[in-house]
Design brief:
Oligomer: single chain
Distance between the termini: 15 Å
CATH architecture of the largest domain: 3-Layer(aba) Sandwich
CATH topology of the largest domain: D-Maltodextrin-Binding Protein, domain 2
Number of strands: 10
Largest sheet: 10 strands, mixed
Strand content: 15-25%
CATH class of the largest domain: Alpha Beta
CATH superfamily of the largest domain: Periplasmic binding protein-like II
Number of helices: 10
Length: about 250
């Protein structure tokens, strides 16, 4: 039986061959901030291999959903967590069965550069760190939704933490000294200057978010868009995903 990765590789080859025959296209991408660094890194190789050009916008997950539901048609490919892609498909905003999964992402923590490193190596250590932290911020995206639930289950007082506004990077708030401790997707924390990355949540309370692409229902370049999604799920993109704090979907 052919593996999913082999199938994606075959689809990628077919899409890139079709792209070279059909001519170059501009692929408009509307993506969650979590995939920003990956997409920027793979752009040169994908454009060289396909002949297409990427035009990308990076927005918080909450704002992407608002924009699409308000009638935004400015994208060919939508990149979000899988549950949101499925919601959009059910609403007719993403082509049914077009979803391609390509990245697994963990939730990480950080403090300001030079600050003492609190212990988050176990569930018990994390709870102690949360209870003793002066201020905590989580994102408005999927990592934040998970962390709010975790805080409630751990009994962390509500006055200890806040949720950042949509699109605001929690690491930047910590880097500026506005908050002591932050949590967000690892891929969103690693590029931030002025913070000390503590690592992902311990496995016993960790959380995996899978990010995927979906074809917008009104995509102007559907064939080229499918080629991009296949590329992101192919072995060619795997080293970039790993370097940016994610892992490929197997």
């Amino acid at each position: 039986m052919i593996s999913v990765r082999s199938w994606v590789g075959a689809l990628l080859s077919a899409c890139l061959w079709a792209a070279s025959s059909a001519g170059a296209a501009e692929i408009r991408v509307l993506s969650s901030n979590a995939m920003r660094e990956v997409l920027r890194e793979v752009t040169p190789d994908f454009e060289k291999a396909s002949g297409h050009r990427l035009s990308m916008s990076f927005v918080g997950s909450v704002d992407i959903l608002k924009r699409l539901r308000a009638g935004d048609r400015s994208a060919d490919v939508i990149v979000l967590q899988v549950s949101s892609i499925d919601e959009l498909a059910a609403e007719g905003l993403v082509v049914s069965a077009s979803r391609v999964d390509f990245a697994r992402s963990l939730v990480g923590a950080a403090v300001r550069a030079g600050a003492p490193r609190p212990d988050i190596s176990s569930g018990g250590a994390l709870k102690h760190t949360l209870l003793t932290a002066k201020s905590i911020v989580v994102s408005s995206g999927p990592s934040g939704v998970y962390m709010l639930d975790l805080f409630e289950r751990m009994g962390i007082p509500r006055d200890r933490y806040v949720q950042a506004p949509p699109g605001v990077q929690t690491g930047e708030l910590v880097a500026r000294g506005e908050v002591e401790l932050c949590f967000q997707q690892v891929s969103e924390l690693l590029p931030v200057k002025g913070i000390e990355f503590l690592g992902p949540l311990p496995a016993e309370v960790g959380h995996v978010t899978v990010f995927a692409g979906g074809l917008h229902a009104t995509a102007a370049e559907p064939q080229a868009a499918r080629a991009l999604m296949a590329y992101l799920a192919s072995p060619a993109a795997a080293p970039v995903l790993i370097a940016k704090g994610m892992s490929p979907v197997k």
